Amino acid sequence: MIPTPIGILSNSISTLAESLKNASLFSPKLLNEYAVTNFNSHLMAKRYVNLYEKVMNGENLHSTSPYLNTEGITPKRFKLDS
Fold first, then answer.
1. How do the residues of the chain divide into helix, strand and coil, expressed in percent and rounded to 5?
2. Does residue 53 have a pLDDT over 90?
3. CA distance 62 to 82
4. What is the pLDDT of residues 16-47, one digit of tens each?
5. Cα separation of 71 and 82, whole Å?
6. CB 31 within 8 A of CB 6
7. Three-state SS at 53
8. 17/10 Cα distance (integer angstroms)
9. For residue 34, which of 16, 12, 59, 8 has the smallest C-alpha distance?
10. Rounded-to-integer distance, Cα 61 and Cα 51, Å
11. 3 sits in which H/E element
12. Are 27 and 7 in contact (CB under 8 A)?
């Protein structure tokens, strides 16, 4: 998904933390080029229109319904000031 010289994607905190130790291996120039090429406003708008058209035509975007994966996550509670 993401080429190694650009960065890393993970849902693992330990994997992300480990990758920070090797951040010098990632190329800021390549990351910028990748982002400009793959996430420019024209391309993103075109992708959203394609998704909206699928939904409007009754198509499903996923083979299974999305869900929130809370495995390994401890909910944080915030005290509200009264």
1. 50, 0, 50
2. yes
3. 43
4. 888 888 888 888 899 899 889 988 999 999 99
5. 32
6. yes
7. helix
8. 10
9. 8
10. 7
11. none
12. no
> If you ran DSSP here, which 8-state letter would residue 81 be given?
P
Which tokens belong to 11? 């849902």
Question: Quick one: which of 2, 11, 8 has its CA closest to 20?
Answer: 8
Question: CB within 8 A of 78, min separation 6: which ones?
Answer: none
Question: Stretch 44-54: mean pLDDT, rounded?
Answer: 95
On the CB side of 50, how many CA atoms lie within 13 Å of its CA?
7
Distance, CA of 50 to CA of 52 (rounded, Å): 6
pLDDT, mean over the chain: 86
Q: Give the pair of three-digit tokens for residue 54.
A: 């699928």
> Token match 């299974």: residue?
64
